[in-house]
Amino acid sequence: MKRALDQTMRDALTRLRHWRHNGGTVAIVTALLIIPMTFALGLAYDYTMASDRKDQINGMADAATLGAVTPAMMAQSSSTAQARATSLFLDQVQNVSGATVSPANVAVTVTDTPFGATITRNVTLTYTAFSPNVFAGVLGLPAFQIGGDSSATSGGAPNIDFYTLLDDSPSMEIGATQTDINTMVSNTSQQGGCAFACHETNPTATDVKGNPNGEDNYTLARALGVTLRIDLVNTAVQNLMTTAQSTESQNHAAYRAAIYTMDYNFTNLQALTSSLTGTGSAQTAAANIASPIVYSNSYLTKTNNNNDEDSNLDQGLSDINTAMPNPGGGTNNIGDKPQEVVFIVSDGTIDEGVGSGGNCGSSTRTCAGINTLVDNCTAIKNRGIRIAFLYTTYYPLPTNSFYNSYISPFQSQIATDAQNCASPGLFFQVDTGGNISDALQTLFLRAVSTARLTQ
Predict the structure, then answer these.
(1) Count of CB atoms within 10 A of residue 419's CB?
(2) Comparing 27 with 238, which gets the higher pLDDT?
C-alpha cells in the first residue's frame, strides 16, 4: 500500500514539473510575439487611415471635375475650366487631416470637342498624395503613397451666329390666309382676280383697274384689312429674336443674329449683333421687313425696266455665302469662332434674268425652284455652315395667268428643291394660313436642340 502511494506522489510531482515547464514556454512565446503583433496592428491602422484619406480625396476630385462642366462653366473657355477644377481640388484637399498633396502632383486636362450642334467637354484629374504613418515610420516607411483620378463629360450648347435670309420678293405679298387671298381676288376682278398686293408708286391704268382712287394693290390690301404673308414673316422674325435671347440664357451660350433680305437685290437690314431684343437690336430691324416698292409693273424705277424679275433668290444664296466668314467650333476657347446657321424663309421660287428681256422660262429668263441654277446650298454646307429652311408653300393661283404659264409646271417640285437645300432635319413647311411664327421658332429650336447637358 505504501509503495503504491509513493508511486502516485512521484507521478503527481512529475506532472507538476512538466506543467511548470510548458507554462514558461507559453509566456516566453507570448512575450516574443507582442512586438510584431503591435506593429501589425499599427500597420493596419496606418493603412486604414491612408484608405480613408484616399476616399476623401477621391470625392474631392469628383467634385472638382464636375465643377468644370457646370452650365455656367460650360460658357467659359477650357483653360478657365481647367484653372477652376484645379483650384477647387487644391482648396478642398487642404481639409484632409494629415494628407499631403503638392500642386506639382495634380494634373487636370480639359478638352472641348465640337460635334455638330454640341460642344463635348471632357475633364480628367489625376493626383498623387501621401498619408503619414504612425507605426510604419519606425520601420522606415514614413508615409503611404496614395493616388487616384476622376473624369467628367458634359455636352453644352455652342456659341452660334444666326444669319436670317428672308425672301421679300413680290410673291410674298400674297394674302396670308385663304380668306385674305379670296378678298384680294374678289376685289380685283377687272385685273382677272389678282391675289398679289404689289407695291407700286406709279401704278399704270392696268394695274389699278377696278381699284378705287387709282390705288395699287398694296394700298388696296391695307384698305381692305388684308394681312400679307410678308407681314407674318415680319412678326415671326421679331418673335424669333425673343426666343433666341431666352434660349441663349438657358443654354449659357452666346448668340448673334444678322438679317438679310433677297428680292431683285440683296439687302443687309441688320449687321451681325449680339443685341437681339430692345432698342437698336435685331428685333427692331426685323420690324422693317417688307416687300420692295417698285415704280410700276416691270419697272423698278421710271427708266429701269427689269421685266418684273424680282426674285433673284439664287443670287441671294450666293451673296449670303460671301457675307459669312468661315465658322468655328462654337467653344469659348481663345481663337475659336461661333458656329453658323443660315435661316432661309422663302416660297422657294426664283424668277431671274439670265440675259436681257424675254419671258419667264425663255433662254434669257428662268423660273424654277430655289437653288436649281447653281448649287449654292451645297457650297454653303461644305463650309460647315448649316442651313435651316422654312418653306412657305407657294400657293396655287389658277386665276393668275403668270402662275398658270410659268409656275404651275414645276409647282410639285418646289418643296423638294427647298428641302434639298436644307441640312438634315432642318426643313419645315408651313402652308397658307399656317403659323409662320411658330414654325420659325420650331425650326430654330431644332437647330439648337442637340445642345443639352449629358452629364
Answers:
(1) 15
(2) 238
454: left (phi over 0), alpha (psi -120 to 50) or beta: alpha
Cα 415 to Cα 92, 288, 346, 369, 421: the distances in Å are 59, 27, 10, 8, 10
Q: Within a 10 A sphere around the Cβ of 212, how many other Cβ atoms? A: 10
Radius of gyration of the chain (CA): 40
77 secondary structure, DSSP code: -
Q: Is 284 exposed, middle or buried (0-12, 13-18, 19+ CB in 10 A)?
A: middle
With a CB cutoff of 8 Å and minimum separation 6, the contacts of 179 are: none
Centroid of chain to Cα 451: 5
Q: From CA 21, how far away is CA 390, in angstroms rounded?
A: 104
Amino acid at 303: T
Cβ neighbours, 10 Å, residue 69: 23
Give me the helices (H) in 78-173, please.
78-93
Assigned fold of 160-448 = Rossmann fold (3.40.50)
Interval 134-170: pLDDT, tens: 655 555 567 888 899 999 888 778 899 999 999 998 8
SS3 163: strand
Q: What are the cell numbers at 383?
A: 463650309
HSE-up of residue 432 (Cα within 13 Å, Cβ side): 19
Q: Residue type for 53, please?
A: R
Any idea where the domains of the chain sit in the sequence?
20-156, 160-448
